[in-house]
Predict the 3D structure of the following.
Amino acid sequence: MITILLGVGCSSFLPGGTSKNTIKPIEDGLVVESIVQIQDDHRSIFAALPPPRSPQGVVLFDAGDSADESNPILAFLTENELTTADVSHIFLTHEHQSHTEGVALFPDAEVLALSEAAPEIIQQGGRVDTLLEAGEKMEVGPHTVEIFSMPGHCDGNSSFLFNQTLMMGDAAVAYMDDTIEPMEGNATSIQSLSSLSDTFSQRTHDVEVILFSHSGPIYGVDALIEYSSQP
C-alpha cells in the first residue's frame, strides 16, 4: 500500500512523534461499506461497488487526473473483473481537471456535478449530463445521495452524503489527531465547513464515516461537529 503525507507541521506532537498537524495519509485500498478509496497521486477516486447480483453499476466520486491507462481506476476495475462499461454514475466533487479528466474513460456513465461547477468543466472539454443543486436528494439504485454546496476551494465545490458515508471531496482534510480543517483557510471555506458542521450537529446518526480526497478517513461525525465549536 502506498501512502502519502500532504503536510507536516512542527508545533505540537502526538505520541510516537507524529505531528499534531500532520494530515492523515491516504489509505489506498481502504474499504468502507462498499466504497473503496483508490489513490491517484496525491488525491483519491472513490468507487462504490454494487451489491451482489444487483443490476446497479459502479458509482464513482471523481474520475482522476488522466484519461489513459495510467488512471488507477482502470487497474481497480480489472482487479474486480469489471470494465469501464460497468461504471454507471460519476459524481464530480468540483471542477478542477485533476478530478474530472478521467471522465473521458467512461462514455456510458452518467456524469453529475453541481450546477456551479458545470460551466468550467464543459469549458475545459469535459462533460456534465446532470446538474445538481444544493439540498437535493436522489436515489441511485439502492443508494441515497444528498448534495451539499461547499464553496471555498472553488465555486462549484461540493460534498455528498452517500448512504451514511460523507464524501468531503476537497472541502476538508483529516489530521492525525482526528480533527478536520478546510483545505484552504479562506473565509468562504471556513464558513462552508462550519455550516456543514451545524447541519450534522442536528443529524448525528446520519454519518458513520467521513472520507476525504486528500487524506485518510475519520470515523463517526464528532470531529465535524466539534469543528464549529473551535475558537
